[in-house]
Amino acid sequence: MGFIGYHLLNVLHYLYLTRVACIGLLAMLLLPLLACGPLRTSVLGAYDARTLPGALIIGFSLVITVGCLIHQRKLVDMHGDIRFDAPVDTLKPGMVRAWNWIASIAVLLNMVVVLRASNRELWPMLLKGLIAGACCGIIMRAGLGRIERKLVDLRHGWPADILSFLVSNGLCKSPGLIELRDKDKPFSFTNVTLADGHLSVLAYGSLLVIIFLVVDEGVIHPLASLLLLICVLSLLLSSVAFILDRHRVPLMAGIVAYCTFTNLWRESDHYYPVLPRAPSAPALPTPAGIVEKSIEEHRPLVIVSTAGGGIQSAAWTTRVLEQLEVQMAAAGSPGFHDSVRLISGVSGGSVGALHYAYAVGMNPSAPDLDNAAKAASASSLTEAVVGMVKKDLLRATFPSAFTSEEMLFNDRGRMLEYAWAENAELLYGFGGLEHATLERWAADALKLVRPALIFNSTIVETGERMAISTSPRSPLGYLQPPRAGNFEFTERYIADIPMLTAARLSATFPLISPAARPAISDGKGNGLILPGTENAGVFPVGGSLHHAVDGGYFENSGMVGALEWLDEALTTLSKAGRELPDEVMVIELAAFPAPPADPMRLTPVDLGRTSQGALYDVLSPGLTMMHVRNSSQSAYAGQLLAQFSLRWQLELESKYQRPPGRPFIRHVRLLPKTPMPPTENDQRGILQRFADWFFIPADMMKAPLSWHLRPSEIAQIDSSAREAVSTMLQTKEILPQTAIMAQQQLVPPQTTDLPAPVAAPPPTMQPIVNPGSASAEYLVKPQQLNRDLLKTFISPKSGKTEPAPGNP
């Protein structure tokens, strides 16, 4: 028993000394497993390979990364006994065999997941590329072995002279780091050289960095960038651990101390550019101004809210709006985009709104919405990951390198913006998106050239919602009570902002893009940090230290911003006695299907014997906060819209003598179809079943959060969008939010240029027992409606609501 305990302690000691390399190898082993499981939404996109060069680079990077980790372990094998008093010689044979097996399994697992995540039609080509790349990596490792043998002689040249200088000044005088040139002579400052293995590790790391810097950013595959990140971090941390472990200083303490030191530089933070606005700059259009102009031009009023959900939400937003344009034109009602007056987006929905508004503004008469959908679906993961490795790792390690103005905004967030602009430029054949600013697009919104936009973001320090809008709500005076929990960007900052940056701030979910705070820019991409009171012109009420992140933290549907904007427009026009729109259609876009029904909820389940224990008691507060946030956001948007609709319906009926029951707010919610469970009668063959299991299918319930969509996922989004729009045009879904929402569908709107459609029969109401409560809910069955109903609504000669005599 004593021998087993002693051997176990030696193993733990060895694993501790090689912990950095072991963690790197464990990351390589777990990354493909997590990509197919819990981290599928964040990691799986990095494994999608589509070209032969991409597969070559992945195979090469896998072997090189494993070799880098093995070299770090070898340093402990060679010097652990004299540097750390660790008996590594007795453990070396077994550990080497275990490392080789685990490293081989890690390489194979990553290759298998690359094939599983990629298009199955490309498997033969990708397999050849992976094998060829791995062979190149093996050849490179063999070449590095020869270089290592030549470096033995080099240790007695200029590296030894540098080392002698360091030792003479009291540095590097440590066993395992230096050794005697001539072992027969005593120690002296001139009789020292670098110990075996160190120069080879440095050469290894230098070679990796040089290869990465030489190869073009567009060629580096995202997975290869992640592997390079593992290499660089493991080299840095293992070198620090090799020095600190000798003196029994914890590695984490060294990391915390260094990070604290780098925080002394303001440049270690992340910034986004704001452009100071001149006092003489024209005021941005108000919601009432845009709605009134739309009424004057007899345009219907369509408000769109689009929920967050990464690149899936961006692709869903643009594709649904494109299908509405196409299918309504085929039904005889062209020009749907002319009716869209506002899009309120959150996270990925803001990115989709950005591409849609860009396409509409470039050619208002016939916008190229298909390319807008393709641009929103195009991958930008490579730029984000390369920015993380090339820019942000250097910023975190050496922030003093970013003190120049042109480097201040140079991070993965800016790289993501460049990728969005480049994707649009490649599809349209010309650029321009990178020059779009809030002020320029605001002028277009007032001219009804493109829709007004609201990009919703969240402030880290206060938890407030920041609305970055081309048509902001009216500013509040300092003597009035401030809005609770939210504010307009133009209220807090007297500045303009690039539209790409505004969309990125709204879509800043963890790790992919950084939390950033504002810094003054000269309009050419250069940053300028001004301390003290010099910022007063841009930051009159503060906020220069506020970091913006994803808008989904506050509210994920975009409905709050849309209804606040619409409410101010209608209230302003109503108080002024102006005309109001005859109807308003609110289109709610959600990129996720409704969750399938849980059969377990239909029958009582005895959970009395289930035990959670003390751990659950500790975790329950955090779990409650997380689940309440998700459930409350899901319910809040619908309740808010129902109350808003009821309020304006009653006000119009009382003040404007609107006929009772005639709808004012029409609500349409477009989301993908709920997936059906697999059938038991499966007629596929064994090989086909294995191929279908091996290939990871697209699943819209699991949104990619990595700014990358696989071809199968793009195809599924496109087909789901076509089906959702087609179904909406044929059957109108009436949401069971309030009783008046059901009554609103009984009287279709009338116009003068088209015959009145045949009124649908009153909707049938049937009780549906909710298993989660004792009460019953009522669901209105969708009725088949004539396409002329929607044609009537979108007609450019839609009526107006005028104030009744004697009413304000």
Descriptive overview:
This protein has 808 residues and is α/β, with parallel strands linked by helices. Among the domains are: 2-224 and 236-262, no CATH class; 271-559, 3-Layer(aba) Sandwich (Cytosolic phospholipase A2 catalytic domain), CATH 3.40.1090. 50% of the residues lie in helices and 10% in strands. The strands form six sheets. Strands 4, 5, 6, 7, 8, 12, 14 and 15 form an eight-stranded mixed beta sheet that branches. Strands 9-3-10-11 form a four-stranded mixed beta sheet, with no helix packed on it. Strands 1-2 form a two-stranded antiparallel ribbon. Helix 6 (123-154) crosses helix 8, helix 12 crosses helix 13 (348-362) and helix 12 (310-330) runs antiparallel to helix 14. Mean pLDDT is 78; it is low at 733-799 and 802-808.
Number of helices: 25
What summary fits the major beta sheet?
A: 8 strands, mixed
**In percent, how helical is the residue content?**
40-55%
**CATH fold description of the domain at 271-559:** Cytosolic phospholipase A2 catalytic domain
- Structural class, please? alpha/beta
Examine the secondary-structure arrangement and name the CATH architecture of the domain at 271-559.
Answer: 3-Layer(aba) Sandwich
The N- to C-terminal Cα distance equals 93 Å
Global outline: elongated
Strand content: 5-15%
Number of strands: 20
Mean pLDDT across every amino acid position: 78
CATH level 1 name of the domain at 271-559? Alpha Beta
Low-pLDDT stretches are 733-799, 802-808
Q: Kindly provide the radius of gyration, computed on alpha-carbon positions and rounded to a whole number of angstroms.
A: 31 Å
